[in-house]
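User: Structure please.
Assistant: Input sequence and predicted structure:
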Amino acid sequence: MRVLRAADLTDTDGVCYDPDNNNICDPLTAAAITGTTLRFGRLATQNAFGSELIPLAVPARAEYYNGLGFVPNTDDTCTVIDTSAVDLGIGNFGNPPAQGVPTIALGAGTTKVTITFTPLVAGALGFRFSAPGAGNTGDIDYSINLSAATGARAEWLRYDWNGDGVFDNDPSGRVSFGIFAGRNAIIYQREPWN
């Protein structure tokens, strides 16, 4: 059982918890709540890179904090996020599309965002960009706007991605077409300079 003091439940203009309506602020006693697991979570995305000739899957998933770190929230099968929440206009020069427009120009081609899982499946979003075609290389910065304005209504999945102590940042990342990871066998490589 947990007791919150009346002073802790009173705001700066005197509004407080007063269930009996006697104009006296009362403490609140909360008994153990059972049956529901509450988790501190976020929607996490990663950068993706690869050939401009094939679609790129972007890792995006719901996660929760288990006391040691963030782990996949495979229990999330209810959160609905569709392409109207995707913003391809952040950091992209030229003529970026408006919020929710899933297609952006890249070189002489275009790439389109699709989301396979709406709602999430085992916490996964199924987020991918179509191949822009041969010679259409470059970077696309994106974010997933979790606000009610986009229809996502998933503000609770925002996180403190910029480290300012406020959990109000939407997940974001970069997709790069036309590059590859290189060989895993090379640990360190350097060109000699004469």
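Residues 107 and 136 are 5 Å apart (CA to CA).
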